[in-house]
Amino acid sequence: MTISVIIPVYKVEKYVRRCIESVIAQECIDFNIECLIVDDCSPDGSMSIVHDVIDSYKGACISFHVIHHEKNMGLSAARNSGIAAAIGDYLFFIDSDDYIPKHAFTNLVSYLKNYPMVDVILGNSLCVEQNSYTNAPFGDTPTLIEDKWKIYELVLNRLINRNAWSKLIRRSFVTVNDILFDVGLLYEDVTWTYKLYSCASSILIIPELTYIYENNPTSIIHTPAERSNQLIWSFTFIVDSLLKHSPVIQGKEVFFVAHHLFASHWMLIALDLYDRYGANSDTTRYLCAVKWTLMKNAICHVRPLMVLYFLVLFNPIHLLLKWKVFRSNLYRMNRIVYKFS
User: Fold this and answer.
1) Structure letter (DSSP) for residue 251
2) CA-CA to 11 of 20 to 30 Å: which in 145, 174, 317, 336?
3) How far, in Å, CA of 248 to CA of 39, rounded?
4) Parallel, antiparallel, or unpaired for β 120-127 and 203-213?
5) Secondary structure of residue 178 in the 3-state scheme
6) d(CA 231, CA 238)
């Protein structure tokens, strides 16, 4: 069995050595590793470090392949290039400023003996900055989810990891369902994992640590002002994409309320960025159009409580978000709407 590890590289010379060395440190007992490193035209010394590390590798269970982009195309395109080139049985994504613990793949693969047909194995990940684990709510035993209703409930209530990394994913499942990343999008993991979970017939959530997310002060999440217009457009696109792909089970649309509240979460983030930084005219029009779609859907489906809640997306009600007490109770309001709509 082969795991295709996909690592996009762009401006990570401080971190990339640790990332690749963490792959080399894996104990390949029942599997081999195909490590696909995608050079997205990194302008710094990242790729020199990459070649130094892989040229020094003397082992036999890891095959390294470097994919070069002719121009910088972004994280989504880099991951898509990795998917297209992969030939392994399973995919595993690593961001090059993060790394994986020593027994990550051994722990993931060990579960395939008892769950050979599972589409996705979701390993536990540690956020170093917050000292928190993503799978903490699921306890210390593996949780198999084969019920589509339950999968959607976890996704729409934001109870399951929404990042591309920390998952062992059957490659054939990805290719058959054409689960690719939206190119040009920031926070592309949101739409990609939504597609992933929507198509999955089974997900296994395990307690073992398989990924370590580090704090990179130069990442997009820490420098929003530099790419504010693209961020606002991206979050608006996420909402638009969600509204165009409602949850469907056995041919019927389901979870109308939870799905629209989930979409409104990302719209509020877009609006918060818009309030702070503004946006160009095209992005502003796009933001307003999608915001109104949310409201119109609630009106057309006769959801009065949801209509009242969505007023927070519009001025003057939106101005109340400047008050800390109102902002801190927004999630509680969201849960009330979810329960009674």
Assistant:
1) T
2) 174
3) 38
4) parallel
5) coil
6) 10
Q: Which amino acid is at 37?
A: I
Question: Dihedrals φ, ψ of 203, to 5°?
Answer: -135, 130
DSSP, residue by residue, 36-91:
EEEE---SSSHHHHHHHHHHT---SSEEEEEEE-SS---HHHHHHHHHHH--SSEE
Q: Which two tokens stand for residue 341?
A: 């709509």
Instruction: Supply the pTM of this predicted model.
Output: 0.94
pLDDT digits (tens, 9 = 90+) for 25-39: 998 888 999 999 999
d(CA 153, CA 254): 11
| Cα distances (Å, whole numbers) of residue 224 to 10, 213, 219 | 18, 19, 9
Length of the chain: 341
Beta bridge partners, 64, equal 35
Over the range 205-236, which residues count as b (16 or more CB within 10 Å of their CB) and which as e? bbbbbbbbbbebeeeeeeebeeebbbbbbbbb
